[in-house]
Amino acid sequence: MITLIVAVTAYALGCFSTAYYLFRFSTGADIRTQGSGNAGAKNIGRQLGAAAFIVTFLCDVIKGMTAVWLARYLELGTAGITLAMLAVVIGHIWPAQLGFRGGKGAATVLGALIAFDYRLLMPSILLSGVALSLSRNFTMSGLLAIALTPIVAMIFRHTALELIGLWCLAGITIFAHRNNLRKFFANTSSNAADIRESLAERRQR
Q1: pLDDT class of 116 with cuts at 50, 70, 90
Q2: pTM
Q3: Mean pLDDT of the chain
Q4: What whole-number distance in Å separates Cα of residue 95 and Cα of residue 197?
Q5: What does the alpha-carbon distance between residue 2 and residue 31 come to, in Å, rounded to a whole number?
Q6: Residue 193 pLDDT
Q7: Cβ–Cβ < 8 Å for 39, 32
Q8: Which DSSP category does 34 fall into?
Q9: Which backbone phi and psi does 156 adopt, to 5 degrees?
Q10: What is the gyration radius of the CA atoms in the chain, in angstroms?
Q11: Which candidate, 142, 203, 196, places its Cα nearest to that of 174?
Q12: Distance linking the first and last C-alpha atoms of the chain
């Protein structure tokens, strides 16, 4: 029963969409009708500036950390901690009070992972840094870091249940960014086609 209560609490905590409420308080409008339409730090930063980005990012990180720390404090064990981690991210992405249209979860995932096991982030961040230098795409490099986290967790000998939770977390986050992925691969394919055409023209000359 305590595990269920914590999971519901974690989901409710995730439902507090910082970007949505900050933008609503500041402008009276819905952040989801502006810019990219995402209720996240990146979009509100474009609309209101760096301060709004920082506040939103930090609040989203803190709520992810809080949910996992609460489960740890109550000593709910592996299942309870993993469930709280997933619940807070699901709440952020699909908040019930906002018609299940929230943010994409990256900052909340980061906070949850810091509280879950900060060691998992180090190798993933290093590898994503390499990807960022090659792709020049911050979102894609961040998704790569999250996708690599379950693999890194195997190195640190996390339990099978924890690994399942981390794979679910990675899958949920990637699903939330599916439109970004489509655009990225479409642009990549388009650029590759342009390069092939350019090389073919050079050969003909």
Answers
A1: very high
A2: 0.82
A3: 84
A4: 46
A5: 35
A6: 45
A7: yes
A8: S
A9: -85, 10
A10: 19
A11: 142
A12: 74
- CA 188, CA 199: separation in Å to the nearest integer? 17
Q: Which two tokens stand for residue 138?
A: 């911050």
Tokens (6 digits) for 101: 């249209």
Q: Quote the CA–CA distance of 42 and 60 in Å, as a whole number.
A: 12
Q: Is the pLDDT reported for residue 110 higher than 70?
A: yes
8, 9, 14, 19 alpha-carbon torsion, rounded to 10°: 130
> What tokens appear for 172 in the block?
């949920």
Give dist(CA 140, CA 155) in Å, integer.
Answer: 23
Confidence band, pLDDT 50/70/90 cuts, at residue 179: confident
Residue 77 makes CB contacts below 8 A (sequence gap 6+) with: none
- Nearest alpha carbon to residue 109 among 23, 171, 21: 171
Residue range 2-39, pLDDT digits in tens: 888 999 999 999 999 999 999 999 999 999 999 888 88
Contact present, 92 and 17 (Cβ < 8 Å): yes
| Residue written as token pair 């690994």 | 163
Q: Nearest-CA neighbor of 108 among 59, 143, 165?
A: 59
User: Token match 């999971």: residue?
Assistant: 7
**CA–CA separation, 16 vs 92, rounded Å?**
7
Residue 70: count other Cβ atoms within 10 Å of its Cβ: 19
Spatial contact of 132 and 124, defined as CB atoms under 8 Å apart = no
